[in-house]
Design brief:
This protein has 6 helices and 3 strands. By secondary structure, it is mainly alpha-helical. It has one domain: NAD(P)-binding Rossmann-like Domain (Rossmann fold), CATH 3.40.50.
């Protein structure tokens, strides 16, 4: 048998303002690895599919999910606006859901599947480089993109 766990690129890469989501996906990935090893004696494999931005209604929901008026007078007010624009920008380049469906089909049907399948637009920038760059470089990239400059 085979179990396919739906994770996310965020299961490996965490960005500002989505810590809770990333934490849930990190947990799912850890559970998947543990479960795969526990089920080996029974011939049951566990495969992770980790998509990046996919064209679904979540983008519009996410962009309007934060009650911005609560933060406008704080340090985070402008940052939330910037983050919202970043989210909407990612939505423009999101892959169709059918692309994920194809990967799930592969994960389910190939005789010897990979442990993890990642599907994301611009995989070099959105997956490979963030995995090999030093964490402090990623910190600076995120800070620059979202305006997270030191205030103290």
């Amino acid at each position: 048998g085979r179990i396919v766990m739906m994770s996310s690129v965020s299961g490996k890469l965490s960005w500002p303002f989505v810590g809770g989501y990333s934490a849930s996906k990190h947990a799912l990935e850890a559970m998947s690895h543990s479960l795969r090893r526990e089920l080996m004696p029974f011939g049951v494999d566990v495969v992770i599919v980790g998509p990046g931005p996919i064209a679904t209604p979540i983008w519009e929901k996410a962009a309007g999910a934060v009650e911005k008026s609560l933060y406008q007078a704080t340090f985070y007010g402008p940052l939330i606006d910037c983050f919202e624009q970043e989210v909407l920008g990612r939505a423009k380049h999101a892959l169709p859901a059918s692309a994920v469906a194809e990967v799930v089909h592969t994960a389910l049907s190939t005789p010897q599947p990979k442990v993890r399948y990642t599907i994301t637009p611009a995989p070099l920038m959105n997956w490979f480089l963030p995995l090999i760059l030093p964490a402090r470089w990623l910190d600076r990239i995120a800070a620059k993109r979202l305006g997270l400059t030191r205030k103290v």
